[in-house]
Structure formats: structure tokens, C-alpha cells
Q: What sequence folds into this?
């Protein structure tokens, strides 16, 4: 009997032990020299970010930064859960798509006080790079790099088809269609449907050129579906001419290495500029970057500079000052940016960007040049995506496939996007 | 030594029992019971995870009636379950029959045939399935070799994509097979011997001895696989990259539920969807149980 009692005591102690240990760990957290940092990433980004953390710790003895990293989708599951539990890190990587929702739920801290106190230095940063992180005049995130939508093409195929250089700032969708047909007739190389992972990015660019935007304050931000219709009409014409890759093939989610560009099945692919490195690596041949074509009678610029990702300080951060200090170091310090090598996008402080442009490899140089080209030909960024945008994007992608697989007519499909869009975004 | 009263002794006995299972018990309460109760509560709320849940009564359930994708996902899931479960069971039964002989190599084969069940939900399988069934994949290459030239993207065509998932399900027949095999080994040899003396042919033996004797195992497998079929998620998720592509033709119920809860942060609606799924599985299992009296053979009953 006695032995049993001892056993029970041991078991109960073992059960309680973790509780005691966790309680102690929690108590340690209040230390002002410790902070938590979270980001989504990939192996390259993780490695460079760890190094940046080490460099910061070396410069600030006594400071400890705990890191958390996962892939994109797992990241948001994790952060949402932490937000619900009130245990968000002190500094987190954030995305333009989710920023507004987080601000509306009071989850993010205004960074203006840290700017005023001089902890975060914005003096070298052009204001156009900061607007993406502002909501109602308050600053909720600092961009870690700039991104812009683009198309990448295979110059060798164009040359074979007898097409000389593309003038990326002046060409129109008519030119694009003509080139696509000519390439197909001369070389047999097809065109991939536009933006298969997220067709909205494609027609958004066209809608912006009419002076409207995809999202309005409530519902859709445009009433005339003419350019939306044209977006699909071009693809249907190419499809009927045999020049478009079949949607049944194109819409299958694949890695860049399995993609049509890598296989040489298409002469063009629609991507964000920071995806150029991986697209180029998968293709294993020289590619060029160009801006998306213009629509007829364009009234405004369709392309814009998008913050690829932000650092934001959650409202519940336990050590926001240290977080702000690290943020400033991460964004402004030339030495650390030399190591980061613009992996998160083209850096935003002028001095850092100019310095980096002199030392990046040829492929990143193409991206830097493209971003400079866009910065001279860009319109202002639209407000962050509203709630319901996730569902809207899914609906758009579904209807896009229905149209291109000819399950619905062009007019029915466009009407469906308009009506369902207004319904979802109400 | 002090004598304990029987009551105290039994209390201590119980306590030590609970102490021994306490790690499991705590885990069960913390990671199963509490989340289940929370999800029941959330199913009556509008909850976007970031904000506070707002009670909205039966609104979530009302919303399902008009939700096109809800009906689509039900359609896909019922089709998937009703096609893949019988196919998998028949296949598992067939292979188990083959393995139900004494040779030594059987153990190795068993292990090999069980492997697909282990690797089923992995990313490697998703990649392999794409390579097999895409337009320039292995299947089309093989078909071309035997003279059938086709460039159908089996995985990208809305009318064929679900079949690639069903095939994947059938391919993962390992656990059902092992249970069938155990069941087959339980059948008394004397029954077959007696039948042989009476001059029964192999087919007669199969329909009059094997099948009736194995019905309890079929019943068990049917219930387990039906539940598996209705809750299928991983395979659909990895093969379609989480999208239910093409055109929602592989948007199984659990995948839609996941998209709602974790992609659109519609946790209230997602929870309601989850409880409807519980209800559906409950009803389906109930039906199987109800009909079991008329086709499942229990030895004990027979003796009455």
C-alpha cells in the first residue's frame, strides 16, 4: 500500500511539474531584453533572418530574440490562434492582404510614437513606400521590400518568332495578342492563361487603368464590366486559335519546376517581381521582365508598388520598444541588408537600395531595374483588401476556369463575377 | 499493518487507476473535450478568430441552405464515400483472400501492400499523383504506347479529377486488408472440411462459409471506412494544393470546412459545418447499424 502511495505522489508531481516550469518561463518573459519575432518564410529567408537576429544580438549585448517561423499558410493559422489567445509575438511579419482586418480588430499597434521618439528612422524612405502600411493616417507596418506585378518572357522564343524587343511601358493588350498568335504560328509555343493562381491580379491591373479599382468601400469598385470582359475575351480568342494552353492543364497547382515556363510550353508567365528569382531558376534559361500591357485609352497607371511584406508590432506586444529597435535595424542598416540581399523584396530606404543595386547578382539586378522602371510608371496602391476578399478571390478563380473551360459563356461568367462579387463584398 | 476499510481501499484503487491514465485523460480533456465544446458554441456564433465571437443563433445553419459550395462539397463527399468505400473494401477483401495462405513470403507482401496506407497523405504522393495524371503524365504516356493517344489532364479535368482521388483511396487498402485477413484466419477449418466432404465447390464454399463468417469484419470495416470516407481531407488537400480544384470537383466536405474556418476566418460557419458533418456521419453509421441485424452473422445469436 505504501509503495502505491509513493507512486501516486510521484505521478501527481510529474503531472504538476510542467505547469510549474511553464509558469516560470512565463515569468521570465517580462524581462525587457527579450522579444519574440515571427515570420513566414522559406529556407533561404529563415537562414538570413536568423543571421540578422544574431547580428543584432551581437551589437546589443544582453538582448535575446526568440524566433518562430513557418510556411505561409501555417503562419496565419498560428498567428490567428495566438491573436485569439492574446499571446502574439513582439514583432511579426505581416501582409497587405490581412492588414486591414487586423487593424479593424485592434490587433496592431500604431508605430507613429516610435517614429516620433526616433527609435524608427524614416528619413531615408520615400513616402510612397510607406502608404501601404498606413490606415486612417496611422502607421501599422513598415514595408520590408517592394514588389510589383510583372510578366516574364522568353526572349529566345520571341526572337525565333521574329519579334524584336517589347517596349514594356507603351505596349497594349492588342500587341500582346498579336505577339501571342505570331509566336504560336511561328514556333508552336503557346501562351499560359493569365494569372492562374490569382486571376484577380490580372484584371485588377486593367480595371485600375480605367481609373476605378476592383474593391469599393462596399461591394465592387467598378460598375462597367467592359475591361473585365476583355480580360477573358482575349484569352478565349487565343484559346480558339489554339494558342492558349488548355485551362485543364494550366490551372493545376504545380511547383515552378513543373510549370509551363520551366518546360518551355509557354513564352510568357505572369508573376510578382519577387517570384522572378525562383521562376528564373526553374526555367534555367535567360528570361526578361516587362510591365503588363496597357488597355486602349488608359486613364491611369495599372501597375503599382506593393509592399511585399511588413513588420508590424502587435498591440499586445510585451516589449514593443525593443521590437521597434530591431525593426529599425532590420530596415535601415546597410550591413544587415548586405546579408539579407533583398530576399524580401527591393529595400525601401534610398541609401540601402542604391547601395544594394551595385552589388546584387544579375538576376536580382533585373528585379531592381524593373522596380525602378515601375516607380516611374506606377499609380498609387489601392486600399488593403477588405474582409471577404479571400472568398472573392476563390470565386473569381472558379468562374475564370468555368469561362475558359467553356462551362459558361463569356457574358454569363462576367455577370456572375459582378453579381457574386457585390454579394460577397457587401 | 493498519487495515483499510473496503471503501477506502476501493477509492485508492480507483485513484491510482486514474493517476495512471491521467496523461491520456488530461490530453483528452484539453485537446478533445474542450475544443469540441468550444466548436459547438462557435457554431452558433459569427467568429472571425481575431475578434470576439458574436452569438447569432441558427444563422449559420440557415446560411448553409443557400450556400452553393456547401451543396457542391456534400455532393462530392457523398460520391467519393459511396464509390471509394465499396471499391476499397472489395479490393482489400480480394487481396486478403489471396494472402490467406500459409506461405512464408506472405508476411513480406503484407508489409509491402500496407505501405500505401502509411504514405497516403504525404506531399510526395501529391507530386506523384500529379505526374501520373497530368496531361503529359505517365498514364497518358502509357496509353499512347498501347495506341490510345490522349492529352486529357486527368487531374485538371473537372469530370475526371475526383476519380484520381478515389483511385488513391482504393490504393490505400492496407488497414482494411489486415483486418480482413485476421477475420479470414478465424474461420474454423472444420467448416471447409465438412463442406468438402459434402462435395461443395470453391464458389459454394466462398458464398456459404467465407462470406457469412466474415460479415462481422465487413461490418466493422464498413463503419470505419465510411467514417474515413466522409471525413476525407488530407488526400484532397495535398493533391489539389488545398483548393478543391478543378472547379471544386475535389472540394470534399472537410476541405471546404477547412477553407471556411482557416482561409476565410469564418470560424463560426466552419464550426457549424463541422457539426453538420458529425450529424451526417451519425445518421449514416446509424443506418448501417440498423441494417446490420439482417446481414451480419453472429455466432452467439445463432446458438439461441
A:
Amino acid at each position: 500500500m505504501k509503495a502505491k502511495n509513493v507512486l501516486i505522489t510521484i505521478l501527481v508531481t510529474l503531472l504538476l511539474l510542467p505547469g510549474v516550469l511553464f509558469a516560470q518561463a512565463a515569468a521570465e518573459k517580462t524581462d525587457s531584453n527579450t522579444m519574440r519575432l515571427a515570420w513566414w518564410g522559406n529556407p533561404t529567408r529563415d537562414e538570413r533572418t536568423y543571421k540578422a537576429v544574431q547580428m543584432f544580438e551581437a551589437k546589443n549585448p544582453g538582448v535575446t530574440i526568440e524566433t518562430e517561423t513557418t510556411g505561409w499558410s501555417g503562419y496565419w493559422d498560428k498567428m490567428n490562434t495566438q491573436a485569439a489567445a492574446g499571446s502574439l509575438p513582439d514583432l511579426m511579419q505581416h501582409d497587405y492582404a490581412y492588414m486591414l482586418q487586423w487593424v479593424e480588430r485592434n490587433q496592431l499597434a500604431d508605430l507613429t510614437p516610435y517614429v516620433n521618439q526616433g527609435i524608427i528612422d524614416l528619413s531615408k524612405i520615400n513616402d510612397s513606400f510607406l502608404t501601404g502600411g498606413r490606415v486612417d493616417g496611422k502607421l501599422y507596418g513598415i514595408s520590408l521590400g517592394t514588389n510589383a506585378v510583372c510578366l516574364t518572357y522568353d526572349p529566345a522564343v520571341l526572337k525565333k518568332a521574329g519579334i524584336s524587343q517589347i517596349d514594356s511601358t507603351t505596349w497594349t493588350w492588342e500587341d500582346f495578342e498579336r505577339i501571342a498568335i505570331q509566336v504560336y504560328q511561328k514556333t508552336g509555343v503557346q501562351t499560359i492563361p493569365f494569372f492562374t493562381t490569382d486571376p484577380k491580379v490580372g484584371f485588377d491591373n486593367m480595371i485600375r487603368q480605367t481609373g476605378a479599382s476592383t474593391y469599393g468601400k462596399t461591394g465592387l469598385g467598378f460598375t462597367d464590366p467592359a475591361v473585365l470582359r476583355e480580360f477573358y475575351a482575349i484569352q478565349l480568342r487565343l484559346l480558339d486559335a489554339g494558342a492558349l494552353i488548355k485551362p485543364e492543364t494550366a490551372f493545376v497547382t504545380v511547383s515552378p519546376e513543373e510549370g509551363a515556363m520551366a518546360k518551355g510550353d509557354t513564352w510568357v508567365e505572369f508573376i510578382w517581381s519577387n517570384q522572378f528569382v525562383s521562376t528564373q531558376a526553374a526555367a534555367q534559361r535567360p528570361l526578361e521582365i516587362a510591365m503588363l500591357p496597357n488597355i486602349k485609352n488608359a486613364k491611369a497607371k495599372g501597375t503599382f508598388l506593393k509592399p511585399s511584406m511588413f513588420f508590424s508590432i502587435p498591440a499586445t506586444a510585451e516589449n514593443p520598444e525593443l521590437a521597434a529597435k530591431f525593426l529599425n535595424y532590420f530596415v535601415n542598416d546597410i550591413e544587415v541588408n548586405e546579408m539579407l540581399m533583398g530576399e524580401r523584396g527591393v529595400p525601401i530606404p534610398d541609401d540601402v537600395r542604391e547601395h544594394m543595386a551595385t552589388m546584387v547578382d544579375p538576376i536580382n539586378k533585373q528585379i531592381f531595374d524593373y522596380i525602378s522602371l515601375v516607380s516611374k510608371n506606377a499609380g498609387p496602391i489601392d486600399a488593403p483588401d477588405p474582409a471577404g476578399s479571400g472568398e472573392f478571390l476563390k470565386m473569381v478563380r472558379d468562374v475564370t476556369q468555368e469561362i475558359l473551360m467553356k462551362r459558361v459563356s463569356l457574358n454569363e461568367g462576367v455577370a456572375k463575377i459582378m453579381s457574386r462579387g457585390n454579394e460577397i463584398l457587401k | 499493518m493498519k487495515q483499510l476499510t473496503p471503501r477506502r481501499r476501493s477509492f485508492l484503487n480507483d485513484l491510482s487507476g486514474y493517476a495512471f491514465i491521467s496523461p491520456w485523460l488530461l490530453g483528452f480533456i484539453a485537446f478533445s473535450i474542450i475544443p469540441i465544446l468550444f466548436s459547438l458554441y462557435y457554431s452558433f456564433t459569427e467568429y472571425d478568430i481575431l475578434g470576439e465571437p458574436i452569438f447569432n443563433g441558427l444563422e449559420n445553419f440557415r446560411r448553409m441552405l443557400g450556400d452553393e459550395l456547401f451543396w457542391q462539397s456534400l455532393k462530392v463527399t457523398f460520391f467519393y464515400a459511396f464509390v471509394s468505400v465499396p471499391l476499397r473494401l472489395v479490393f482489400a477483401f480480394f487481396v486478403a483472400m489471396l494472402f490467406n495462405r500459409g506461405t512464408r513470403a506472405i508476411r513480406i507482401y503484407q508489409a509491402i501492400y500496407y505501405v500505401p496506407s502509411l504514405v497516403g497523405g504525404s506531399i510526395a504522393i501529391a507530386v506523384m499523383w500529379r505526374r501520373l495524371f497530368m496531361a503529359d503524365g505517365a498514364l497518358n504516356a502509357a496509353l499512347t504506347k498501347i495506341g490510345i493517344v490522349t492529352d486529357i489532364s486527368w487531374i485538371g479535368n473537372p469530370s475526371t479529377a475526383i476519380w484520381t482521388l478515389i483511385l488513391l483511396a482504393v490504393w490505400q487498402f492496407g488497414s482494411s486488408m489486415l483486418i480482413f485477413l485476421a477475420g479470414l484466419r478465424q474461420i474454423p477449418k472444420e467448416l471447409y472440411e465438412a463442406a468438402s466432404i459434402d462435395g461443395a465447390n470453391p464458389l459454394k464454399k466462398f458464398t456459404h462459409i467465407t462470406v457469412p463468417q466474415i460479415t462481422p469484419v465487413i461490418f466493422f470495416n464498413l463503419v470505419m471506412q465510411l467514417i474515413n470516407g466522409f471525413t476525407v481531407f488530407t488526400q484532397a488537400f495535398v493533391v489539389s494544393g488545398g483548393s478543391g480544384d478543378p472547379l471544386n470537383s475535389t472540394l470534399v466536405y472537410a476541405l471546404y470546412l477547412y477553407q471556411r474556418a482557416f482561409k476565410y476566418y469564418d470560424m463560426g460557419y466552419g464550426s457549424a459545418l463541422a457539426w453538420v458533418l458529425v450529424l451526417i456521419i451519425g445518421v449514416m453509421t446509424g443506418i448501417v447499424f440498423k441494417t446490420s441485424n439482417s446481414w451480419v452473422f453472429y455466432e452467439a445469436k445463432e446458438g439461441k
